[in-house]
Give the backbone structure.
Amino acid sequence: SIVVLLALAGCHGARPTTPIAPDVAALRRDAEAHPNDASRQRRVALAELYEADGDPARALPALERALALAPNDPMLHFARSAERVLHGHPSQAVESLLAAVDIGRRQGGAEAQAIAEVAANDLASVLSDVGGRRAIADRLRAVLADPGKLGPAALREIAEIVIDDAYARGDVATVTSTAARVGCVTRMRVAGPFGP
């Protein structure tokens, strides 16, 4: 009888180990019923963009509603950048990516730092599709000058953009100072036939 009791106790409260995808229609109804709830608006916005039964055409209005309620949510800015690229507006994606980086600079925190790093990486990709690379690199130079709470991974991604721009302009001094600022190897000595 003790074995049966232990078996029942072990089964009580058992939860499925596989996550269940949210029902986007239910999330829409929930968000409509609670228009001023930032977390509900966030859930439906991300579901519209990333879930299989989401509607990417509904994503931007949902993201805009969520951002109006939570303007300092780095994930919403990052998702907005993905939506803008998806719908052929890379210059608008740049502004959202820069916003995500800036939030990481001001907030710190693991999520904001991870998003800032990926946003900076995506900036490098999107910049090839938009004009104004120099102006964006100047904004990122300002971030490097005052990194706030950004971690080394995000700073390295930002530095790569700044360094690429400096190389394109022939500005070796900026290349050298930026590389030194983020800890890049600027000199090395090789001894023997075995490499560095």
